[in-house]
Amino acid sequence: MKNKKNIGDKVLFSGNEALAQGAFEAGVRVASGYPGTPSTEILENLSTYEGIYTEWAPNEKVALEVALGASFAGARALATMKHVGLNVAADPLFTAAYTGVKGGLVIVTADDPEMHSSQNEQDNRNYAYAAKVPMLEPSDATEAKEFLKIAYRISEEFDTPVLLRTTTRVAHVKGIVTIGETESSKATLGIEKMPEKFVMLPAHARKRRGELEKRMGRLREFAETFPENRIAWADKTRGFITSGVSYLYVKEAFPEASVLKLGMAYPFPDRLIRDFAAQVQELIIVEELDPFIENHVKALGISCKGKELIPASGELNSHILRKSITGESVRELFAPVPIPMRPPNLCAGCPHRGIFHAISKLKVFVAGDIGCYTLAALKPLSSMDSCVCMGASIGTAFGMEKALGKESLGKIVAVIGDSTFMHSGITGLIDVVYNRGFSTVIILDNRTTGMTGHQPNPSTGVTLGGDLSGGIDIEALCRAIGVKHVTTVNPHDHEEAGKILKQEIERPEPSVIITKAPCALLPEMKKRKDKNIHRVIEANCTGCRSCLRIGCPAIEWVPLTPEEAKQSGYKETQKGHSYINAVMCDGCGQCAPLCKFKAIVAADQDNGNKNG
Amino acid sequence: MDKVMNLFLCGVGGQGILLASEVISSACIHSGFDVKQSEVHGMAQRGGSVISHIRFGEKVYSPLIEPGDADLVVSFELLEALRYLPYMNSNTRVIVNTQKILPAPVATGMDTYPADVLDQLKQRKLSVFPIDAFDIARSIGETRAVNMVLVGALSVFLPIQENIFMQVIEKRIPEKIRKVNIDAFLKGKETVRGMRTDS
Fold first, then answer.
1. What is the DSSP letter of A113?
2. Do B129 and B94 form a contact (C-beta atoms < 8 A)?
3. How many whole angstroms separate alpha carbon A177 and alpha carbon A432?
4. Which DSSP helix (H) or strand (E) runs through B36?
């Protein structure tokens, strides 16, 4: 086992690494998820422990269904996802609350306040309330591990799935974690037929609904004495109720104040809250995003302050908190100075770059999706016009097509990655075929899940554990659902790709173009020795900037003053020339055909300044 | 040490900031401190600006350094030091790698790289320690060891013994590249120690 650690060892773990260790210590047997920042590293780490089955599922709904099945068989099971992933998994979640569990079942939702890498910043504590399941909320890595183990005990004791919510500043913050004892489920492994519990046809579900209400009552009672709902009494002029990482900001900014820390975000310990509120002069609720605790406290008839002081969007920190509450800024800060932005970019050698360059020439509406390629929306490629959620590109394009009718033919394309197509793109494509559309779908197949750091997916041909698994043939899959026109192209070849693209978008039938070339950052691509590094023959460069329009990080613009231009043998009017940074160049060759003046050549093709 | 110490690392995706943070944080643990280290993954991996907060001391609550509260800033790239000025105060020590990595708007000729980064820092009376970490790393034969040069440079100001850093590097860095990383650390340390005049 790669992660061999001894009981009592103190290690530096991120919240996600701590959750993996917690799952191991809790005796989890099956874990499934879909990669998504900030949740990805939980399963990546867990997969290195022995004796636990871990997998990437095609989407979060499937991940939860797999975990639920494992629980039905008596095993402790884990499903992991980012906040928006729980939207996808919401369907099984709400019914899992009815069936309950056999082996403990925990669902981790990793929320992303401030949207460091997400399309929205929903507060998933609302799911606990809506689905009627308990939720625990750790504030750092140390608690993350302990709370996960507690979550399994609660799950089995109360016969319920348990949500565990992290946020970016728990998931990705490293702190000290002590390796603990392992435990196991009290449930017995095996097949047990319990149709009244597991078959949610209406007659059974109505009974389970009653059970669910009773369970929530017992959980509310449990919350009153749950040791992780704890009061630290201090100065009583100001008292805070808080949970998760917000607790740490409260302790940092107001170390002298009394605090009620809710380790269980839902349901609430009403008596404990009333008792705390009654003893402090001023009560302030500190929480990131929604007024989830605040609304409940107010509903209890207790007056408190919350969102009128503290921002309802974005991440908190101790500075924002202090300023919100006391009005004081800590000190005069150095003012920011205007400097160039440093936006993220598609990598040098990225196979997506050429395709977006080709698409941008067609001036079509590009319905986009979630992945590295969403960066094509930024300058200079500027070739993505919508991006909603995982798998939405195809449906969006198809909806536009149906709204506009025949006149939209040749004016809209959908783009989607291989992993995203597997996640939930395929159902959109089935809709196009079944409902007689003519949408053109470009599947950007870079053989991996790029954005989250190279997790395999069902089309990659390898599992999370590294076993070969064949891999779904995307071309054959598209044909099988009824797409007659499926073409695979090499995205590094602009000309060919552009030609096929033009031909297919004009076709009054559904068509799929698969652009297939591996991600430039895959280890085997980084290590390859046959890189054909390109260079600029400076004498041939006219400074037209055509090559800069594909936004490759290896191509730089060297500005020239009129004197410098003259000295270098250019006309005085030439403002500069392009230069290829040999350290960064990946040798993909996408830039060469863009230069009409043949100034870009492969290094092994030309040694001098000859024309052509 | 009763006060929590705040280290702020910034640079560009791919420069090894996260590994450097891990080495520093581990050294803090081995010296008996509580420590929290925070970074953001995701978009930043694709050549964007990357930051890492490290806080250590007797007991650390918040994982984030407040604006104006950094004791030490290590900028892995020249320009990035200016981007995070609001985290500094007049007592902040700033170690700056003078290596330039052009941001996309500069590379495409849409914007220009500021010419006077070090002067701008000095004008604000900050203690600035410029170091050509890329050149040092190249001189010892491993350009990717820029991060360890900077960890060595930073170590001059930390209440952590050199042998603890050595133990952490020993444990964390694969044997094949361990020696160059240790050399990088020592060279960085020596370079900045030579510049230090305050104590």
1. T
2. yes
3. 50
4. strand B34-39
Is the distance from CB of A265 to CB of A296 less than 8 angstroms? Answer: no
Q: Over the stretch B110-148, which tens digit does the pLDDT of each residue have?
A: 999 999 999 999 999 999 999 999 999 999 999 999 999
Q: What is the pLDDT of residues A301-314, one digit of tens each?
A: 999 999 999 999 99
Helix (H) or strand (E) holding A555: strand A555-559
Q: Which of A119, A173, A180 is nearest to A145 (CA)?
A: A180
Q: Reduced to 3 states, what is the DSSP secondary structure of residue A525?
A: helix
* pLDDT tens digits, B98-110: 999 999 999 988 9
**DSSP label at residue B157:** T
Cα separation, A53 vs A70, whole angstroms: 10
Around Cβ B84, how many Cβ atoms within 10 Å? 21
- The more confidently predicted of residues A330 and A559 is A559
Q: Which of B108, B123, B171 to mutate to test the interface with A (most CBs of A within 10 A)?
A: B108
Beta strands in A28-184 (DSSP E): 30-33, 53-56, 77-82, 105-111, 135-136, 162-167, 173-178
Q: What are phi and psi of B108, to 5 degrees?
A: -90, 5
Give B30's contacts (C-beta < 8 A, 6+ positions apart): B164, B167, B168
| CB contact (8 A) between residue B86 and residue A173 | no
Q: What is the DSSP letter of A486?
A: E
Of A174, A337, A375, the CB nearest to B46: A375
| A229, A273 Cβ separation under 8 angstroms | no
Host H or E run for residue A353:
helix A351-362
Classify residue B191 by its DSSP letter.
H
Reading the block at residue A441, the tokens are 């779908």
> Measured between alpha carbons, how far is A417 from A351 in angstroms, rounded to an integer?
12
Tell me the per-residue pLDDT of A68-86, one tens digit each, with 9 for 90 and over. 999 999 999 999 999 999 9
Contact B42 A330 (CB under 8 A): no
